[in-house]
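Quick one: structure for this chain?
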Amino acid sequence: QVQLVESGGGLVQAGGSLRLSCAASGRSAGSLNMGWFRQVPGKERELVAVISLRGSKTYYSDSVKGRFTISRDNAKNTAYLQMNSLKPEDTAVYYCAARHFSRGSNDPYDFWGQGTQVTVSS
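Got it. Here's what it folds into:
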């Protein structure tokens, strides 16, 4: 089993920055690909960024590319999402997700955090 706990959300003005953290624990905490998703009520959850097991490969959605940076500190079993130049349309609940590194890239994520609210005012 894996448990994920997000933190770092809050209220910021447009153009500001936040850093989200995702702490992983459990038996497979050191064997995970990590991702960040976001969701607005009434809309489908959107993939934001992905990072590979050792952090050598990353993926970003077009909407955040150049503004957000995903990283990880495996010594702490923690993933991060640095969010710069925030826009009101970035407002959402942000979720950390994980899957074992041996799973295929198209396989669903197995584990999810509880979510952290990010609100960007205009």
